[in-house]
Amino acid sequence: MWNWKITATSAALVILVGLAAISFGPINLSFAKILKSLLGIHGGLSGQDRTVLIDLRLPRALLAALVGAALASSGAVYQSVFRNPLADPYLLGAASGAGLGATIAITNTHGDIYRLLPVFSFVGGTLAVLTSFFISGKFFAEPQSLLLSGIAVGSFATAIQTYLQQRHSSSLRPVYSWILGELTVANWQIVTWSSFYILMAIGILFLVSKQLDGLMLSDEEAFSLGINPNRLRVIAVAAATLATATAVSASGLIGFVGIVVPHLVRGITHRVTNRNLLTVALTGAAFLMLADLGARTLLSPAELPIGVITAFVGAPFFLIVLRRRRTVQS
Amino acid sequence: MILVDRLDVTLSGKKILNDLSLSIPDGVWSCLVGPNGAGKTTLLKVLLGNTPYSGSVTSNGEEVFRSHQRNVAFVPQQPHIPQGITVAEYVTLGRAKKDGWGNESVKSRALIAEILELTHLYGMHKQLVSHLSGGEMQRTLIARALAQEPELILLDEPTSALDLHHQIEVLNNLQFLQERGVTIVSTMHDITLAAMYAERIIVMQSGRVLAEGDAQEIIHSAELRKAFDDRINVFTLDSGRPVIVAKKDGK
Fold it and tell me: Which of A60, A290, B223, B236 could in theory staple to B211 by disulfide, Cβ–Cβ 3.0 to 4.6 A?
């Protein structure tokens, strides 16, 4: 059942990591002054420090938290819908489609590309997922076929993307830095629109999360317990994809969050993650803020792409999960 | 009473059930027997109500397709074994329709304790379902179906993966249910066991019903032998119990 202590711990973690994220950087800000500024009490930060906090650190930490929560909870949901513990939010071609959209934006527009980039990548990601759905057709008979068509659509989008990159070699660098994921562009505008979609999608996932337990059973058993398994899958996948596409268009491709966080929570609680979706979302938020803190400070004043940090932690973790699964099965 | 009238089911262009009519009385254990591909599992899914069909299938006068009013439990032949869920939690899923998903009433808690006792799962209720043996898994599936307090329970080959001892244990659990007035429809490859437990037997072949009726009569009927292309022998033990054995090389 739901374990409120673990949820409370993860919420505390979000606050702690969040404070650290807005306090540390090339300019270190004091905790006390940050708190005073945020609460509007006299004696807070002023001048340049205040600008750093309000216009740079705060939107960036919030965006990291939003994207982390979106990727982690949609990862957990994909894993239970597809009955595949290694499913991740980018599975249905959302990442490659968004990557293609972003590449088109970067290679074809002049001037301020970042204004159009989120729109392009959002449309690209959503189109790729819709195409996967359309091609698979048999989704209702066999969820695994959607997975396969997602992989095919993803490879196709990546191929076009590579072709475009080679034709416009001058823009190779911005494309790559976007693919590796970045939060450097965070501003209040991005935070506002992405929080709208992400919070809406996560809200829908919370509403259906308890019923998702029924998808652990066969479709006949789920039906006998009063669930319409196909309708539930469509709702869950649509909401998870909306969260993923928004996250990708706001921050680029940040890998492994959707796998690491659900498995971490599962490892600690020994429970299906559907029942801990709130914990998963909070842990995802804390994880990505921490990764971003690492990205900003490890090579300071230079920045590492955040995707490098998450992959650095995520890839070995992924292998440990795989190995443990094998030993459990044997 | 379930009445099936002129039932046709076509799945991906292939006719699985063909002009099939039969009746299933309440409170009785009916067993579907017949060779592989006879359409037994499809018929179970139609009775559950989630497979489209033409013709009519009514339960107490109500068409069953997409009807969520009925309380029917389904035990599949090959269950999906969920990760990260304990025996007690798994059995509690059976209460979801009555209590709402994620809730558990006080009444349900008492009922589940009783069911775990009955199915000899009480000591292992905190174990993960994915760590159970085949026999324990099957008992857990049946315990979840019992927790549903169904009016009708459908079981697809409930004993096929079990050793003899566990087969009898599972079937005794079902008999306990049937004595309490629950209607049971199961498929079973072991016709000897079917004759031992079920009161009615329905013989199927190629999407049709060849014979239906009292188990003891059907066992000795020509239709049963015909369903298996006359490749079975029916013997009667001194106790009067029938035993069905496959012929070797047609002898």
Answer: B223
